[in-house]
Structures are given as C-alpha cells and as structure tokens.
Amino acid sequence: MTKFTNDFLWGASTSAYQVEGAWNEGGKEPSVQDVRTPFTNTSDFKVASDHFHHFKEDIALFKELGLKAYRFSIAWTRIMPYGKVNREGIKFYNDLINELIENNIEPIPTVFHFDLPMRLHESGGWNNRKTIDEFVEYCKVLFDNFGDRIRFWQTINEQNMLVFASKALSGKPKTWKEVFQANHHMLVAQAKAMGVYHKGKYGGKIGPAPNIACVYPKTEKPEDMLAAEYMTSFRNWLFLDAAVYGVYNHKAMRILKSLNAIPEITKEDRKILKENTADFIAFNYYNSMTVSASNGKDQQGVDQQSGFSIKGFFRSEKNNHLRTTEFSEWPIDPVGLRVTANQIYDRYHLPLIITENGLGQEDILTEEGTIHDDYRINYLETHIEQLELAIDDGVELFGYCPWSAIDLISTHEGFRKRYGFVYVNRTDFDLKDLKRYKKDSFYWYQSVIENNGLQAKENK
Ligand code: BG6
C-alpha cells in the first residue's frame, strides 16, 4: 500500500538563472549571477539549458515523466528590470504557467532564488533597507499577475545558504555583521510579502524555502549534544522561527551576539515579523551535518551544503557512518531526511513539501543516446523510502520535488555536475546542440509517479 496521498505532488525543481539562459533577452536586466566571474573551469549562466527558448519542449518531457508539479523560480530581473514592470517578462511566465496547467502540472514558483538584480546589488543589495520595498513591490506584481493560478508560493530559496555561503553564491565575502543585517532585511521583506499575499486574498498559500539539515553530535558527550543544538538553531531554526513564529531564535541570538552580528531590528520590524507568518514550509535537503564542541577555531564552509564551525559553539566533523558524494564530498544520508522532516514537523506543525533533494554527478551520454545513472536512482530511491517512513511517523508531507527536472548549471560547480532526469547536450564550454535525452532515472521516476510511490521490493 502506498503511503502517499492520492493528490501527492510528485514534482521536480529548477531555478531561473540555472536553467533559463537568455540572460539579456526579453527586456531582462542582468542579475548578480549573470555578471559575476564564474568559478574556475565552470560555465557562466548566459545560456544555461536554454529553457527560455525550449520551455514547451521541456514541459512536454515533464508531462511524459508524469510530473504532478514543477517547482521553478521567477527571475526578478525579467519581471521588474530596472524597477519597471516588463510586459515581456510577465508574458514569458504567463506562457510557462499556462503551459504547465494545460499539461496538468501544478506550477510552484519561488519568488527569489539567488539572482538579485544587479542594480540593487550595486546599491547595497540586501544590506540596503530599500531592497525590502523593491522586493515587496515585485511580489505584488507577481501575485497580481499570476496569483489566480498559483496555490503554493515560496518566498526566498535557501535564505540560510545565502547567508552561510555568501562567497559561493555571490562571489563576495562579507562580515558576519553585514551578512546578518542583510539577513534581517530578507526576513522582514519575506514577512511583508506574506502579509501582502494574505491581505490580497489571492487564494493560495505562501511559505519560505530554506535548506534544512539535521545536525548530529559527533559523540555521546553532552558538550557535543549542546554543539549540535547550537548549530541546529543557528543553521535551521533562526530562519524558520522567524518565518513561522515571527521571532528570533534565542540560541541563534546568543551566537550572533558572540559574533558581534546582532542586526538592527526596529520595533516596527518585530511587529511585521510577528503579524505575517507562513502557511506551509518548503525545504531543501541534500545532507545532514555532524558537529562536536568547538575547539576554539573558527572556519567557514566552502559551499552551501558543507559544514562550518563557529568558535565557542560548534565545530563541523566528518560523519564516518555516511558515504559522500563525488562532488564536494557532501554526506549522503537518507535517514537524515526522515529525521529532518520529523524535526521540522514537530516544531512547527505545518504541512511540508520538499523542494530540492538530489545527486549531482557527471553523466555519460552513450552513442545510443542513453544515460545510465543508477547512482542517481539509488540516491533518490533511498530518500523516498525514508519519506514513506516519515509519513508513517505522522509527518504531513504533501509533495516531493527532486533537484532537478532537467540538467542545469550547478551554483558553483558548472554544467559537469548534473542533477537532471533529462540530459542536456552541452558541456561547460561547448554549447553543442542542447538536445534533450531521457536518462535511466527519467524512466525510473516515471514509474514511481505512476505507482504513487516505490513498488514493494519483493515485486521488483
Ligand atoms: C541548493 C540550491 O543549494 O542546492 C540550488 O537551491 C543548487 O540552486 C542546489 O543548485 C545544488 O547545489 P550545487 O552547488 O550542486 O548546484
């Protein structure tokens, strides 16, 4: 018997700047991602998978895959280039949303996924309070234009990773103080946008989309447990407590104090946070974290999923019980997904949807046009098994959208690191013909969706 409800949203994810390309077409303003120097030996984001020009063909493939939902992001720079509403940008997303609906695929948009308009970046980005108003205005344009067809809006993708991996994601390191002031402005912007949405009675639900990872203590030492609690508060609950309860987490505040990074929070900000909260929680999960008590050394992580340490509170450790991915050695931990889903549900009692989960790996296109990505199937299958158990535990889970629907450019490791069910024929520096090929994981996921879950092992 399947554990998944009949209307469970089996989906897949992408983000605008990683998949669309057409970086300077349709009246678009460049975003920070379009203009920053690419990381060593990786492509820029100018063409990506050229989804902007191939979206109908891609949606036909999503339909064949059987997707019930498509989680994508809207490029702020297409909708409001240089601060003005752009009809061409609105038309592009109207066409995309309508094409999805015609194919019975639920559109689940993210408002902002790492691609701040360059103009705003140059005037201080999220450190400038004015960006809050720009964001809210942009959201209102989205709700007014697409709100009649959207049931689930996500506000900001992985705000916590924008904070902890600011170097990997924007190319620029900042001080903790700057990072957490920017973070505070994002929290207020998100709350205001949720308020506008609720007040406008657009009829759907809205929530945040952070990256949440459970944190294990390295040993049974009480100090390691405390370290795990601190990291959990700092990495996870700081963001969700603000979005769901409208408050700052007290242990996260303790860390911010020690980093001299407590943001300026006005009385009005507190009111806004408190009065405008989330209806559901979308979260991304790739791996768990493991920590021990701090050894007094402060070191930053290198990318959005890797661990990091905070002097006096916690130190990231290797978990010797887990295999790791080939790229960046992220721990592979399906049980951690069950733990994480339970922790979130325990704390907030809101419906959950997983908006990213997946394995980035090099794929080989054979001469016959096939891609044998059994490693990806194995990753996804073991994670879905744990979702079934989480549902058994009582977690209210209404969707699962693995990363990614189609190959796209990784945030900092280029096109070589592929995640898709659909292969896109290009490399980092050769655009080839951008032809689409179905991977083995495509056919596997198709049957998962058809069966509304994994088939019992004995029937396979
Ligand atoms: C998440 C992001 O951090 O992880 C995605 O929301 C990203 O944008 C994904 O692509 C995988 O990370 P990476 O670095 O392998 O692309």
From TrEMBL:
GO BP field? carbohydrate catabolic process
UniProt keyword Hydrolase present:
yes
Xref: PROSITE patterns: GLYCOSYL_HYDROL_F1_1, GLYCOSYL_HYDROL_F1_2
- One Pfam family linked to the record: Glyco_hydro_1
An annotated GO cellular component: cytosol
Q: Which SUPFAM superfamilies match?
A: (Trans)glycosidases (SSF51445)
- The active site lies at E356
* Keywords on record: Glycosidase, Hydrolase
Could you tell me one molecular function GO term of this UniProt entry? Answer: beta-glucosidase activity
Spell out the family assignment given in the record's similarity comment.
Answer: Belongs to the glycosyl hydrolase 1 family.
| Protein name as catalogued | Glycoside hydrolase family 1 protein
Q: Which source organism does the UniProt entry give?
A: Lactococcus lactis
